[in-house]
TrEMBL record, chain A:
GO terms for cellular component: RNA polymerase II, core complex. The gene is RPB3. Pfam families: RNA_pol_A_bac, RNA_pol_L. This is DNA-directed RNA polymerase II subunit RPB3. It is found in: Nucleus. GO terms for molecular function: DNA binding; DNA-directed RNA polymerase activity; protein dimerization activity.
Automatic annotation (TrEMBL), chain B:
Keywords: DNA-directed RNA polymerase, Nucleus, Transcription. Belongs to the archaeal Rpo11/eukaryotic RPB11/RPC19 RNA polymerase subunit family. InterPro entries: RBP11-like (IPR036603), RBP11-like_dimer (IPR009025), RNA_pol_Rpb11_13-16kDa_CS (IPR008193), RNAP_AC19 (IPR033898), Rpo11-like (IPR022905). Residues 32-105 form the DNA-directed RNA polymerase RBP11-like dimerisation domain. It comes from Mortierella hygrophila. It comes from the Eukaryota. The keyword Transcription applies. GO terms for cellular component: nuclear DNA-directed RNA polymerase complex; RNA polymerase I complex; RNA polymerase III complex. It is found in: Nucleus. One of its GO terms (biological process) is transcription by RNA polymerase III. This is DNA-directed RNA polymerases I and III subunit RPAC2. GO terms for molecular function: DNA binding; DNA-directed RNA polymerase activity; protein dimerization activity.
Length: 282, 125
């Protein structure tokens, strides 16, 4: 098939860490590499807190402020396939099939003995670790137990009691559902194709150094004529996840989602043309 | 006033929930058509355009997003007499899905080989 120019795309993983992966995609078009990047950012489903029912809040932060902060907390989503989208679920609002409940109850008691001792830190930090999940597979990402995600700081006498409903979603709807914190995407580090136009003071070479990826390509000879037919075919991609799922899983799921989209469109196309054969002339 | 309201109700066009449709008036003959893809954007549009152009029977293929606040993409295809726009579209979708499959397999093979810098997980999920 002509879509595979000489063997089709190749993947070469350079490094794989707990929450980041560097890989090189070669022998394919920029549009395919960009589709992969876009799907990883915006269409891989994860879990995130979507509804918050606040029972008591006497902290310094307002209810909506806390609800917003809760929404931003990444939740482990490696088992997200098991959970349905709420819009596809048969329930009216939410149910265990399409949501996970997390509760939080922190009350800081007043200790009258320590009250006037300035050397004692009486601030209680409410963190993501205080959230109790009803589902073992969906809980706040907590890789660094010493520095958990801070929700609010409380002083003695204050109380926070709430229930969160985490739902499955994609970042196309809200960025809190994005499994990635950042993706770096580079091709043609020497700017051989002149896709980049650098803003310079005096000297381009001095002001714009080449990236680490340039080590894999041959430098441009200043005397060589510009090849206007050249196309990019080597893409350096680094995915950094929020910790909600493994980076290699994000990439694999992204491609599967792309396939599902294409398959769905084929079915719809078939339906469209079956409905009214004459209209289309065959 | 009341008559105009009732008229609107009668004439109300049925909302098209289909994901793929042919833009009315764009299919003068089977070899050309503009397809409207509901809820799709540059992610699919640009890659699909490329896959279509790879088909030697396709004379012209392009995509556009008519308005940024409407979630739809238009794909225009013109083909030679050997095929039809709809068949070219079908083949384009098929080819791109095959390509995705190829990338998945390449990825899995690379993961299985394990020839990369690897940092062991401290605490698994």
């Amino acid at each position: 098939m002509d879509i595979y120019n000489s063997g089709g795309p190749e993947v070469s993983i350079r490094s794989l860490k707990k929450d980041s992966m560097k890989f090189v995609l070669t022998n394919t078009d920029l549009s395919v590499a960009n589709a992969l990047r876009r799907v990883m950012i915006a269409e891989v489903p994860t879990m995130a807190i979507d509804m918050v029912e606040i029972e008591t809040n006497s902290t310094v932060l307002t209810d909506e402020f806390i609800a917003h902060r809760l929404g931003m907390i990444p939740l482990t989503s490696f088992d997200v396939d098991r959970i349905q989208y709420t819009r596809d679920c048969t329930c009216t609002l939410y149910c265990p099939n399409c949501s996970v409940e997390l509760t939080l109850h922190v009350k800081v008691n007043v200790d009258y003995d320590d009250m006037n001792d300035p050397t004692i830190d009486k601030t209680r930090q409410v963190t993501a670790l205080d959230l109790i999940s009803s589902d073992e597979s969906v809980k706040p990402v907590s890789d660094d137990k010493a520095h958990p995600i801070l929700i609010v700081k409380m002083r003695p006498g204050q109380e926070l009691k709430l229930k969160c409903i985490a739902k499955k979603g994609v970042a196309k709807e809200h960025a809190k559902w994005s499994p990635v914190y950042g993706i770096s995407f580079e091709y043609d580090p020497y700017n051989r194709l002149r896709h980049s136009h650098y803003w310079i003071e005096e000297d381009e070479k001095l002001e714009w150094g080449v990236s680490a990826n340039a080590a894999e390509e041959t430098p441009v000879d200043p005397n060589e004529p510009f090849d206007y037919n050249a196309k990019p075919d080597k893409y350096y991609i680094e995915v950094e996840t929020s910790g909600c799922m493994k980076p290699e899983e994000v990439a694999l799921r992204a491609m599967t989602i792309m396939q599902d989209k294409l398959g769905g469109l084929q079915i719809k196309l078939d339906d469209e043309f079956k409905e009214d054969t004459q209209r289309w002339g065959y | 006033m009341s008559t105009s309201v009732s008229r609107m109700d009668e004439d109300q066009i049925e909302v098209d929930t289909g994901k793929v449709s042919v833009v009315p008036g764009t299919m003068i003959e089977p070899q050309c058509a503009t397809f409207c893809l509901q809820d799709e954007d540059h992610t699919l549009g640009n890659a699909l355009r490329w896959a279509l152009m790879k088909n030697s029977e396709v004379d012209f293929a392009s995509y556009s997003i008519p308005h940024p606040s409407e979630a739809r993409t238009n794909v225009r295809i013109q083909t030679s007499d050997n095929t039809t726009a709809a068949d070219a579209m079908y083949k384009g979708l098929d080819d791109l899905a095959d390509l995705c499959d190829h990338v998945i397999q390449a990825f899995q093979a690379e993961l299985a080989k394990g020839e990369f810098e690897y940092e062991e997980e401290e605490n698994a999920f």
